[in-house]
Amino acid sequence: xxxxxxxxxxxxxxxxxxxxxxxxxxxxxxxxxxxxxxxxxxxxxxxxxxxxxxxxxxxxxxxxxxxxxxxxxxxxxxxxxxxxxxxxxxxxxxxxxxxxxxxxxxxxxxxxxxxxxxxxxxxxxxxxxxxxxxxxxxxxxxxxxxxxxxxxxxxxxxxxxxxxxxxxxxxxxxxxxxxxxxxxxxxxxxxxxxxxxxxxxxxxxxxxxxxxxxxxxxxxxxxxxxxxxxxxxxxxxxxxxxxxxxxxxxxxxxxxxxxxxxxxxxxxxxxxxxxxxxxxxxxxxxxxxxxxxxxxxxxxxxxxxxxxxx
Length: 310
Fold this sequence. Notes:
Elements: E1 5-9, H1 13-29, E2 35-39, H2 43-46, H3 52-55, H4 63-70, E3 76-80, E4 92-96, E5 105-109, E6 123-126, H5 129-138, E7 143-146, H6 151-160, E8 165-169, H7 170-175, E9 184-186, E10 200-205, H8 212-216, H9 221-237, E11 245-252, E12 255-263, E13 270-278, H10 282-309
Parallel strand pairs: 1-2, 1-3, 6-7, 6-8
Antiparallel strand pairs: 3-10, 4-10, 5-8, 5-9, 11-12, 12-13
Helix pairs in contact: 9-10
């Protein structure tokens, strides 16, 4: 059996689903391996009454797990890729990106109404500035409010807070067996997903001859290529959860298409563009797309948001 492999994970139902999926995948691929879970509480789990943007954005759900990884208390950190900052800490690497689940967002409404059917003045909850900005652009007559908590908590607030609807990631609902709660799938051309949405990140120490080969067996090259392009876009924009940035890449054969978006928080300005090229150049395409958006006014939006959060 040898030394057990320790997976570091958050304790939410969705995070535990991800960790259990990883444990099962490792055991299936390497029979006889011993795999254990270590539940770690992150800052994002501890502070639930403050919007993510005001807490500093990306990194809130990964830093404590990364510390445990660097200190050798865990061997693999499993994260939702959309929670990952653009820069990975020194000494750590993304060891694998498994095949992506559906990447788009969905609407869960209290009365079964679609986004365009909700009456003017209706209140929609979301934890994401990215979603909020796009919702305000699509339906400026609705009220969009910040909503924290795990998936089950946010759905429950439909009733307790008398919300018209909440917007969530399709992947989370599907993984938790809650797909039946979906009222409407919001296609990427209406609600562009977050960078990395629907994908998992298996983070490991950069030099780990025991763990590296284990996780690399779970890598899905097409997903990794698409996510690398999206993350290059994000990195060039130096964005996080406190900025309404979206990016979604698609691989078709040897071709890669990336759509990116930067928006004002109130939805009054939405800068969006797509760029295509060889899949082998996904990261270059991500950087070029970011440059295009910056030249079209995204730089001003980002500067204003940076000043506002200081």
